[in-house]
Amino acid sequence: MNLSLADPFSLSQDYPEVFSHSLHYGHSSCVVFNRRGDLLASGRHDGTVVLFDVETGGLARIMRGHTRSVQSVSWSRDGRYLLSASLDCKCILWDLEDGSRKRVVRFEAAVYYAELHPFNYELFAAAIHEDFPYLIDISNPRTVRNKLSSLPRKSPTGSDEDETPAITKAAAQEAKALTLSTLFDSTGQFLICATTRGWVNIVHVATQSTIFSTRITKSAIVTARLSLSGRSLIFNSRDRILRSVHMPPLTDEDIEDPSDILFEVEHTYQDLVNRLYWNHCDISPTGEYICASTYMNHDVYIWETNKGSLVKILEGPKEELGFVDWHPTRPMIVASGLETGRIYIWATNNPQRWSALAPDFQELEENVEYVEKEDEFDYKDRAEMTKARLDREDEEVDLVGMDDVPGDLRDDEKRWTMPVLLDIEESSEDDDVKIVGPTAATSQKKKKKGESAGGADEKKGKKRKAGD
Amino acid sequence: MDPIDTNGRLSPPLKRQRTVSPSPPLYRETQAFDTSTARVAVSSLRSPQTQSLTNGVGPRKQSSRTNYRLKLTLTGHKRGVSSVKFSPDGKWIASASADKTLRVWDARNGDLEQIFEAHTAGISDVAWSPDSKTLATASDDKTIRLWELKSGRMIRILKGHHNYVYCLNFNPQGNMIVSGSYDEAVRIWDIRSGNCQKTLPAHQDPVSGVDFIRDGTMIASCSHDKLIRIWDTNTGQCLKTLVEEELPPVSCVRFSPNGKYILASTLDSSIRLWDYLRDGGKVLKTYLGHVNTKYSIFSAFSNDGKYIFSGSEDAAIYVWDVQTKEVLQVLRSHEDVVLGVSAHPTENLLVSCGLDGTVKIWADEREGSSSTTIP
Predict the structure, then answer these.
(1) How near does any CA of chain A get to the CA of B308, in Å?
(2) Fold entry, domain B35-364
(3) What is the mean pLDDT of residues A337-366?
(4) Are B260 and A405 within 8 A, CB to CB?
(5) Closest chain B residue to A358 measured between Cα atoms?
(6) Do residues A149 and A25 share a domain?
(7) With contact defined as beta carbons under 8 Å apart, do A71 and A113 qualify?
(8) Mean of the per-residue pLDDT values for chain A?
């Protein structure tokens, strides 16, 4: 609801520009915001899942259950359930109402990636090491595992002359293809599976059949991400290129003729000079920007997707970054450090507007000659004026109605709020939660000076310190 | 009484003179006392002082008159009661007093549920967490303390303010507290860790009121420096300042239930409803009739958004119609200044507290009102 009063200039900032602060509680291996953006889930190397409160930077939950590194975490739509996938061959569905394990699903091998269905938290897809991906249904006490194929869909005979030879040539190799990412599309009807052979398979969830396949690269696709809007996809592959794809409209009617699905690479993103590998990538909620962390480098790159141009390189920490995630509503990016497991956060820098503090003063660009108003020094009877003012107060006011209130949460997203626990076990860890960065520094400074002028220099100094 | 035992809200803020008599005549040791006799049940009596004002104006359109009657008087506090609040689930009433205690009462029958003692000076304000499980108190001992209702334990102590803590509120998510103090700052606290997250150099005089908007993204603060400021919770920056020519010291501020307006009480015996979104802010309504020149008196919205309640220095509670600004009812029973009022979240119940050390529950007996739960 602060949108109506916020500085239009700061609202126009679409992507983060400055390093804000870092969070540290154990060695984080993956970080994901929930849909509302008030909580950040961090899977740790030791198998613990930790929830941070984005607003306060404090610890909200600690959940222990895995014994080895957590590879991915996935939130349910309402934010109540969290699915974690780990190298200890387990997926755990957590109920955040009380932090309990709602379901534990064991696999034969390590789990690389698991994602909850966007509407049904009792259905998820998992990518398994050296195995086919699975679609897991846990609505019944007995877990139903449906094996999906990693193989591309065989083209109907003679339908596509160009592709047929490629398929036959690589057929033997294709059999060894592994799926590393399994994404649900925004409707939850289809799964997008990316394989180590560069194929993208679209699987119909209800029938578990591959309805469409296309090969977007010859090397392995290691990461696939879908934007929150559900309209853009990004694939990160081992050939050092990120590929963005405009998500084709998938509805049940399209299954009639799946080969018509238009699934083409829109833009490719690469660093031609440094030939950097990308560790991980994400898309902004609207799909306007993509960000990626770099291999053997400390930076996060941001491109805009309209023209495919690089707009920003975020600097800050002195370590290589792994997982990156874009905040669902704000211009904010988090990334986990590979070496220390710290979580780094970039955001925008919003300077204080002077006119907000003193509304009777105006900010002027240049000198303006003062012109006295006609009635400025006229004598007015105060009592009469007050009476006249009170009489004018006849406007109807609605104190309860929520119509046309800007920025209010949509209904499906405010249904469930996580209870605030005040007794999370904190003392058991050696390293306490630390928030390092200019956020704390500015507030202290403000207290001293009471103003934000000249804050830039000091902030820079703090930033450097935080990076050390 | 030791010298530190002042109370921000109970002392008139500008003069800081002590006005609470050390022991109100009604004082009884509630813990040892049978609760059924400790409170004065007057539900059968029609309080003769309760009167409706007609103001010489005939009944205006759709202003259905309230008919609040005194139901229960809760005694036990040994000094003036500075703040009283219904819990968000409507089951409890919390009252904070200059006698350094916080008491929680059953909203249904007025039984004393818990007494929380640990503060070393008087308490100026109390707030409920949105889940009704935790309470926070602001005290003249410069601390904020968090209490767990179920166990009666103190679970956090928030230190940081350099002077009396005067007012506080939870955010709707329940993970933060905002507090205002005599040290002229507004602080935002992370209640999980108990750390102060932000210190806003908010005002140039004691901060007399703070409130979160319904989605928690903004904070309103007011002060005796005559300003009402609106802050962005996330960035800690001032988004807007509401001023009016010759606005007197502001003593209480709160957002309307839908967050579109701000209700502010000022020490010129008026309460103003602001449309803060309009350029520069505009006063839409001014509610007059009560007396408020010295104390920081709470005001409250009814749960349906049709009425506004406020305490008054003439020992009464005033009820206004939001639209017509007409005084619908004046509730008299308190023997001294009424400092706090709070409306029940769902039923037509009202609770008030004052310098006389009592907490009183009122129920609307108008036809069609739903407050029939109290026996």
Answers:
(1) 11
(2) Methylamine Dehydrogenase; Chain H (2.130.10)
(3) 83
(4) yes
(5) B241
(6) yes
(7) yes
(8) 79
